[in-house]
Write a structure and sequence with these properties.
By secondary structure, the protein is an alpha/beta fold. Helix content is about 30%, strand content about 25%. It has helices at about 10-25, 40-45, 60-80, 100-110, 130, 160-170, 215-220, 280-295, 340-355; strands spanning about 5-10, 25-30, 90, 95, 115-120, 145-150, 155, 175, 180-190, 190-195, 200, 205-210, 230-240, 250, 255-260, 265, 305-315, 320-325, 330-335. An 8-stranded mixed β-sheet has the order 5-6-4-14-15-16-13-17. The longest helix has 25 residues, at about 60-80.
Length: about 375
C-alpha cells in the first residue's frame, strides 16, 4: 500500500522532498499557502556553497558539501525529465579580502576542496562603510592583495530550478494545492490527525513541514524548541549583453553572480524585521554602491529589478531535519537559512533515510528536532 504524504510548503525543500517521495512510490499532496516557489527559494542567488565555508560549523559544511556533490546529477535528471534547465554550472567563486588565508587553506585541504590564490582585477582597497554595513559580524585581516579562487563552486538559477521541480512533481503524479494555508496541526494520541487549512481539512499517513520561515509559526504549540525565524534579504538585478564576470565574486556578504544570459545578481542584506518582505531605498543604495565599488561599470547600468525574500534563519545556519520528538508521523525539513538550495539534495537524503529506517551517510545528530 502506498504511503500517503502531505508536504507543507512548496519551496526548494518542499518540492525536492515531494519529488523524492514520489520517486520511491509514495503518494504526495503538496500544500502551499501562496504560490509554488515564490518565497525564499525564488529570491535566493543559487550559490551552491556557504559563502566562505571555513567560517561555518561542521554541521553546515558537512550538509552543504554533500548537497553540492549530489546537485549536478540531480539537476541534469530534472532537465532530462522536464526540458526545463536549472542552469547548473561550475563557474567558480573568487573570494576577495579580507579573509583568514591560513584558515581557508587548512579548511580546503582537510575537506578536499580545490583552492587557488590568484591576482584579481579588483583594486586592493575595496573596504567601505557601505560594505561593512551589510552585516555586523567581526571580520579578519584585510592585508592580502590576492584573492582566493574556488574553481569547483557551482551555481544554479533558482527560478528555473523551481520550475523544473514543479514540473517533475506534477509529472510524477504529485498533487499541488496553492492558496492553502495551514491554520492548525491537529494532533491526538501522539500522532497528527489532520491539518485544518483555509481549504478544509487534509489528512495523510505522514506530514512533512518544509515551510521555511513560517515553519515555527505554522506548528504553533508543536514547534517545541524549534528556533526558526525570518531574516530579510534584498537583492538587485542587472542585465548585460554578455556575462560581465567569468565567475561569482564574493567579498564578505556581498556577492555578484553572473548568469549565462548576461543577467547579474547583486546581494544581499541581512535584516531582522519579522515577516516584512518589502524593499527599501536604503538597502538598494547600499547594495548598489557596494557593487559599484567592485564593478564600476554598474554605475552606468540601470537596476532591472529589486526584490526581497525571507530566509528561514536558524542558529548557526543549522537546519532541523527529521521526526518530531512526540508526534510519530510528523517530520520537518526546514531552517536552512541561506543555504536551502545548496543543501536540498542532502537534506532530502537525510529525511528519507530517517523515514525509511535507512542508515545515514552523515552524522545527523546536529539536525535533530529537539
Amino acid at each position: 500500500m502506498q504511503t500517503k504524504n502531505i508536504v507543507i510548503g512548496a519551496g526548494a525543500l518542499g518540492l525536492a522532498s515531494a519529488e523524492a517521495l514520489l520517486r520511491q512510490g509514495g503518494e504526495v499532496t503538496l500544500l502551499e499557502r501562496i504560490q509554488v516557489g515564490q518565497e525564499s527559494s525564488w529570491a535566493g542567488g543559487g550559490i551552491l556553497s556557504p559563502l566562505c565555508p571555513w567560517d561555518y560549523p561542521d554541521a553546515v559544511t558537512r550538509l552543504a558539501l554533500r548537497g553540492a556533490a549530489l546537485f549536478g546529477d540531480w539537476a541534469q535528471a530534472l532537465y532530462n525529465a522536464t526540458g526545463i534547465d536549472p542552469e547548473y554550472q561550475r563557474c567558480g567563486m573568487l573570494v576577495l579580502p579580507p579573509f583568514d588565508v591560513e584558515l581557508a587553506r587548512h579548511w580546503c585541504e582537510s575537506h578536499g576542496v580545490r583552492l587557488e590564490q590568484k591576482d584579481s582585477s579588483f583594486p586592493r582597497k575595496r573596504e567601505s562603510s557601505l560594505i561593512n554595513s551589510l552585516d555586523s559580524r567581526p571580520r579578519g585581516n584585510d592585508e592580502f592583495e590576492k584573492g582566493l579562487f574556488l574553481p569547483e563552486i557551482a551555481q544554479a538559477r533558482n527560478p528555473r530550478l523551481l520550475q523544473s521541480l514543479r514540473a517533475r512533481v506534477e509529472q510524477l503524479g504529485g498533487r499541488i494545492v496553492e492558496q492553502c494555508e495551514v491554520e492548525e496541526v491537529v494532533a491526538e494520541a501522539g500522532r497528527v490527525k489532520h491539518l485544518a487549512t483555509t481549504q478544509g481539512d487534509f489528512s495523510a499517513d505522514t506530514y512533512i513541514v518544509t515551510a521555511g520561515a513560517w515553519s515555527k509559526k505554522l506548528l504553533g504549540e508543536h514547534a517545541l524548541q524549534l528556533d526558526v525565524k525570518p531574516i530579510r534579504g534584498q537583492m538587485l538585478l542587472f542585465k548585460f549583453d554578455t556575462p560581465p564576470l567569468p565567475h561569482i565574486v564574493l567579498q564578505k556578504d556581498l556577492y555578484l553572480i553572473p548568469r549565462r544570459d548576461g543577467h547579474l545578481l547583486v546581494g544581499s542584506t541581512l535584516e531582522d524585521v519579522g515577516f516584512d518582505k518589502s524593499t527599501t531605498d536604503d538597502a538598494r543604495e547600499r547594495l548598489l554602491q557596494c557593487a559599484i565599488t567592485l564593478l564600476p561599470v554598474l554605475r552606468e547600468m540601470p537596476v532591472v529589478k529589486h526584490w526581497a525574500g525571507l530566509r528561514p534563519a536558524s542558529p548557526g545556519n543549522i537546519p532541523t531535519i527529521g521526526r518530531h520528538p512526540h508526534l510519530q508521523n510528523l517530520y520537518i525539513n526546514s531552517g536552512h537559512f541561506r543555504y536551502g538550495v545548496t543543501m536540498a539534495t542532502a537534506s532530502v537524503e537525510v529525511l528519507l533515510n530517517e523515514m525509511n529506517g535507512t542508515p545515514q551517510q552523515l552524522d545527523v545528530s546536529p539536525y535533530q528536532w529537539r
